[in-house]
Amino acid sequence: MKLFGLDIRTNKARKAELEYYKKVLADAGVKVTWDGDKYPGSFGITKDFEIIDREKLCKRSLQLFTENAYTKGLIRRIVRNEIFTGLTANSNPIGSIIWPELDEITQTDMAIKFGDVITQEFELYANNYELFDFKKQLTFGEFQEMVRREALLCGDGIVVSRVNRYTGLPSWEWINGSHIKSPMDGQKLAKGHTLKSGVELDEYGRHVAYYVENVVGGDIKYERIPVKGEKSGRQISWMVYGSEKMGDAVRGASLLDCVLSMLKDIDRYKDAEVRAAVINALIAFTVEKDVNATMGTRPTAGLARPVHEVGPIKNDEVTHRQPIQLMEPGTAFDDLAPGEKVVSYATNRPNVNYAAFEGAVLDAICWSLEIPPEIVKLKFTSSYSASRQANNEFEVYLKYRTFKNSKDFCQIIFEEFVIQAVINNQMNLPGFIYAFVDSSLWRIKSAWLNCSWSGISRPSVERTKDVKAANDALDNGLTTFDDECRRLNGKSFRQTVQILKREIDYAHQLGFNPHILEDNNGKNAYPEMSDNGSDVDNDNGSEE
Questions:
Q1: 500 to each of 57, 144, 505, 506, how far by Cα in Å?
Q2: What predicted TM-score, i.e. pTM, was given to this entire model?
Q3: Residue 525 gets which letter from DSSP?
Q4: pLDDT tens across 271-286, in order?
Q5: 3-state secondary structure string, 319-369?
């Protein structure tokens, strides 16, 4: 039934009609359910990614990183830009939460003071490899690089907190994901707990412990490492993933899992072309003969053929000489038989289309990894605008990775250091112990542990334009000094100003007045910043 051209049939009638047509199509052998196929079998084999040969994927990724130039360059570019010398901590306690009874200015001053202390203490700890690294080899920055590289290649791994018995501070160990496996003889678990791919889960799917496979004296043994201390609730271990995963997935996968075959094949193509080019270069020329030609004269018989000759015996040793007749420039062949001709060997290798094909494959790989090809290849042959846009797109990626790397890895290490340093009386943070013990004071604890992380400050494509744009944005109130300092030099505004003040004070001690402190007339624009605090207002800079 239609009203004003609209179908106003009841839902019951529509459902009955749909069932009728489904039956008609099914009787005719036509599939009526939608599973992504445009026609039967068009999608191909449907794979179940719950069943993953994790060990083989890890080995193949590591193999490509070892022997494949494309993979090595790709991973190195990612790690070098994401980590560089390591993400840098900048402690930012929130004064309004820690000292609500104080005025706003005092809150800010106290937060800056304690933030500087925490940052300096953590830097001393992080840069001391004997304190930081359980194996006493890596600083915090180097540790970050190792964790990120192996997580990218193997999919995941765990960071484990060990206690340094001399300092009482945590020292850190990285265990590659290839060693995390479920015990072969089974494992007795708590009620409601399950074991999946070496990870023990509770009834809510939360990580409880990890099982690490070790070979001791030829025997395989498994170490159970809990995620948190049973009594303290402190973080003992956690898993770091190399790339994104589904929400209910337990383990991660290699970043290269979907491009392994492409990387291997493009490397085979390169090796084949290189070998073909070498063989091509070894063959200087050929002698062609007509079908009716007589027996060949072998015109090249005397060229570049070594003649083995045994020399006289000296001191019971036989000397050997191999005189070689070379083809000198201007050599002519005048003894060719009828029907013979000397032909230059074809020099059409490597394939003229190789570079374009290689570029297309690498572009596809870079696209799947969210990295501009210009960054990976280090080729900026387009215009300034195109290069700048590629740089901006990569900045988006790096900002996200800085957020992820700091949240999933760096911040946890920072928090555990601060907690243990306060417990050991190595730092005095008022009220922190009470907030740590009393869970109802979680806001104060979080305010003390608030920290920002900064990565590499990548060089600008054209620094002059960027600085001018930053100045214009500041003049119009569209940005902050802190944002622009982090963008241009990687440091916070507070750090930048503090360093600048120290440098200016030192310059004044030497009798040098930096140009940035002069006005348009060459006079000191900030007389209160002179070495003794007195005004400097005459032309020669003498004090009145």
A1: 50, 29, 9, 10
A2: 0.75
A3: S
A4: 988 888 888 887 777 7
A5: EEECCCCCCCCCCCCCCCCCCEEEEECCCCCCCCCHHHHHHHHHHHHHHHC
